[in-house]
Backbone:
């Protein structure tokens, strides 16, 4: 069994060799909201040894309904810093690299994609998603992308598949078109087959935020994050 008792129950299922692979893996997570935050914590608890966290935002009160890392005490704090502290409280040995930035293609940053063993795309902007996917594919870095989770309440409708075989998801439709345009022939994604609900009440936008943000709950984004984490683990272990 592992010297570190934190991961004994995981090792009992996966074995010591698998745990060593996970401890040596470096995963980059773009976006630490309802999806990315849950994916991050799941991977920390699975024993991934090193992370790069990319997010420019701070927590707001409207994040409390769905984001694992959001608490009343965290409002106004950087998402990357709260995530870093939480990870270290779970596993003091985990390595965390923080990048407080909004990722966009062509924008200067200190990100070195060649160092990543896997990339999770949990950001909202199409330009950002396409940019990081192209960079990953250029360097041969595995990447998984999350499609829309807003305006949905049924996590059982979430699926893992290729972007070109998605349906029902408005964001995936836009991404399919952009992927064809950019020559992206294959991309693993998490998406929902649930028809998006129409909000019954208007949502007031936040300063500097989306003008018309979608409705959201604590049901679908966290489940999507867990699916992302599961795929990362399976791929890193070749399962």
Residues:
């Amino acid at each position: 069994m592992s010297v570190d008792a934190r991961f004994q129950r995981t090792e009992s299922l996966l074995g010591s060799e698998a745990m060593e692979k996970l401890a040596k893996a470096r995963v980059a997570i773009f976006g630490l909201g309802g999806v990315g935050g849950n994916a991050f914590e799941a991977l920390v608890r699975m024993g991934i040894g090193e992370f790069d966290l990319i997010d420019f935002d701070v927590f707001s009160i409207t994040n409390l309904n769905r984001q694992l890392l959001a608490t009343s005490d965290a409002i106004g704090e950087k998402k990357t810093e709260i995530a870093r502290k939480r990870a270290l409280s779970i596993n003091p040995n985990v390595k965390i690299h923080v990048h407080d930035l909004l990722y966009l293609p062509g924008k200067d940053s200190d990100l070195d994609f060649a160092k990543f063993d896997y990339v999770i795309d949990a950001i909202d902007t199409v330009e950002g998603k396409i940019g990081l996917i192209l960079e990953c594919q250029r360097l041969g870095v595995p990447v998984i992308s999350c499609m829309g989770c807003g305006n949905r309440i049924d996590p059982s409708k979430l699926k893992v598949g290729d972007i070109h075989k998605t349906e029902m998801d408005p964001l995936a439709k836009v991404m399919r078109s952009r992927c064809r345009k950019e020559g992206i022939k294959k991309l693993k994604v998490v998406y929902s087959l649930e028809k998006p609900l129409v909000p019954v009440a208007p949502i007031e936008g936040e300063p500097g935020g989306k003008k018309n943000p979608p409705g959201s709950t604590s049901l679908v984004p966290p489940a999507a994050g867990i699916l992302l984490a599961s795929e990362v683990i399976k791929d890193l272990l070749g399962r």
Remarks:
- The domain at 5-237 is CATH 3.40.50.720 (Rossmann fold).
